[in-house]
Amino acid sequence: MTARNKPVTIFIPTPLRPFAAGQDAVELDAPTVAQALEALTQSHPDLRKHLFTSEGKLRAFVNLYLNDEDVRYLPEKEATAVTATDTLSIIPSIAGGTCRPGTRAFGA
Fold first, then answer.
1. DSSP structural state of residue 12
2. pLDDT at 106 over 90
3. What is the model's pTM?
């Protein structure tokens, strides 16, 4: 870690932990959200295909929060600066499914 930056904590969701050496959180030295993700995927290359498209864009079903704010709605988006007191949380979207035949959905 460099002297000018302090580590930011990135929380790894359970489904992606096998691609991050089983870790639930990683501390990385980066000045922005984008650079934190780049550092994460450099240290854990298998995560890249799960987080980014082949064009290098964050996948649509990957939600990224800086503290409690959805990065997509921040003015600077992934160029937003991060500090040592910030946390990044990767939250994969969960899609619904269907009920087994003969069962009812909740509230139905």
1. P
2. no
3. 0.78
